[in-house]
Structures are given as C-alpha cells and as structure tokens.
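TASK: fixed-backbone design
INPUT:
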C-alpha cells in the first residue's frame, strides 16, 4: 500500500511538472476572517500540497488526482469551497484550528491519513488550499462562522445510562434521525416512545431500518452511517460526537442541531450514538440485528 501511494505521488508530481507551469505567489492574500497570509507561506503551502496532497486531491484541488478513481470515499473537491467537518454551523466558514485537527488525525474509513505536519506546515498548506476557492475564502469581506464550543456534559459517567436512554428517544422521535440513517428499535419500542413523547402512535415503515443515500453539494451521494457498522469519519469520543451533532456536516443533509434541540438532548444523542458505535464487531450487534429481525 505504501509503495502504491509513493508511485501515485510520483505520478502526480510528474503531472504537475508537465501540465501545471504556474508561477509562484508574488503577493500575499487576505483570507476569511481578515487573516493576512504572506506569499512565502502560500508558496510553502503549495510545495507541501504538491508533495502530500495532490495525488488524491488533484493539481487544481478538484478531488481528481491520479489516485481518486480507486477510492470508495471521493477525495474532497476544494474548488467547491465546502468543508464537511468544521467547528461552526454547517454552511458557515470554519476556523483554521478545526482543519488542523483533520490534518493531524485524518478521517476514519477514508484514504485521508493522519499527517505528521508541524503547526507552520499545517497553516501553510491549508491557506494554499483556500486559494482553490477564492470566491469563498479570499477577501477581507469573507467572515468566519461563530465557533461552536463543547459545553459541559450534563450527564458524565455517573448518568451515562440515563443519557443513552434519553438519546434513544431523541434520536428516533424528536430529531427523527432514522429519516436519513436507520432505526435501532423494534416497532413496539418505537410506538411506545412516540406515544410517551408526542401522544401519538408511531409507525415503522419499510424504510425504517434502511440507510437512505442523500444528495449533497459535493457532487456525489453521501451515505449516512450505520453507527453499529461504519467507521465515523470525524468523531470518536462523546465530546467529538457532540460537536459534530451541534455543527452538522457541511454540504450534506446533516444539519446543525445547535439551537434546534436542547443542548442536553444533543449530549444525550452523542452518548446514544457512542453506545451504538461500541457494538461494532461485537456479539451485541448480532443480538440487536436478531432482535430487529434484520
């Protein structure tokens, strides 16, 4: 795998040398949020991008590098100016630090690996990537979104079971998460939850236990994860899940839940989703599948 990636990188470098004779940056740029980035930093970022990123993301940042056709999860098209996993409400421009986390840790279940870059290198390459979508990122008139901070977990370990129980209710009835993802309760359980929370009976249709592919602004269908089966791209801990639920996923049908449901409910769903993730590759998942008749 490593040798294949090296070959792809060399091919990508050769392509850049033969088809992309762009001159070096001679002037700096003012980026969103009023941050000035020098020409030296952008040139450094271009060099890092060419060496590490171009094989997947392409010479022009369009996500179509020499390696992209062999990937189940398409590389990000930076020309669209859309960031999936930020620290602001989806649709707003994220702060640089949230992108640095992706560079440092990678994205689970994808070809986006963790990169051992120093802070100055991460700053340089990310600001170079912004130049692929100048209408989105470049200019003193571009504003960053309001940063979503992780509040204090109102449950903690002491009330973990209560959090999971509430989260199950919120997931299936309040937020109706199975409209995109899938349901994890029996028809009888769903009916009981619905009556208790809304006063009305809840019905399970034939789509209830299915994942529903969604249209996106990324030019491909996105697949909402089955939390008991798929790896979650940008979140592993309850705190990270809280942030993703609060912020949403940019360019997809996953909205920001901040301000739509109560903060306690977001935390509860985060605990519940983490409990589902803990079933992955365990007998508990087999038991759940059998219980649901799937």
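OUTPUT:
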């Amino acid at each position: 795998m490593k040798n294949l990636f090296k070959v792809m990188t060399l091919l990508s470098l050769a392509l850049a040398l033969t088809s992309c004779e762009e001159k070096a940056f001679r002037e700096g740029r003012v980026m969103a949020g009023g941050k000035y980035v020098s020409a030296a930093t952008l040139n450094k970022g271009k060099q890092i991008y060419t060496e590490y990123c171009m094989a997947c993301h392409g010479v022009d940042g369009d996500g179509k590098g020499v390696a992209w056709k062999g990937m189940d999860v398409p590389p990000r098209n930076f020309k669209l100016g859309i960031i999936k996993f930020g620290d602001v409400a989806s649709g707003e421009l994220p702060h640089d630090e949230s992108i640095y986390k992706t560079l440092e840790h990678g994205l689970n279940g994808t070809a986006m690996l963790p990169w051992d870059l120093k802070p100055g290198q991460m700053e340089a390459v990310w600001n170079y990537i912004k130049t692929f979508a100048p209408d989105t990122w470049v200019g003193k008139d571009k504003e960053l979104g309001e940063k979503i901070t992780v509040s204090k977990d109102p449950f903690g370990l002491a009330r973990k079971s209560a959090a999971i129980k509430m989260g199950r209710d919120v997931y299936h009835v309040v937020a109706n998460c199975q409209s995109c993802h899938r349901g994890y309760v029996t028809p009888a359980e769903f009916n009981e939850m619905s009556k208790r929370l809304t006063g009305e009976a809840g019905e399970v249709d034939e789509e209830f236990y299915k994942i529903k592919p969604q249209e996106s602004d990324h030019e491909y269908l996105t697949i909402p994860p089955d939390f008991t089966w798929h790896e979650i791209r940008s979140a592993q801990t309850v705190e990270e899940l809280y942030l993703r639920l609060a912020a949403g996923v940019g360019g997809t049908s996953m909205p920001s839940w901040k301000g739509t449901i109560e903060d306690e409910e977001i935390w509860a769903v985060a605990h519940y989703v983490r409990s589902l993730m803990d079933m992955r590759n365990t007998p508990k998942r087999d038991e759940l599948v059998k219980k649901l008749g799937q």
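COMMENT: The CA atoms of residues 222 and 279 lie 23 Å apart.
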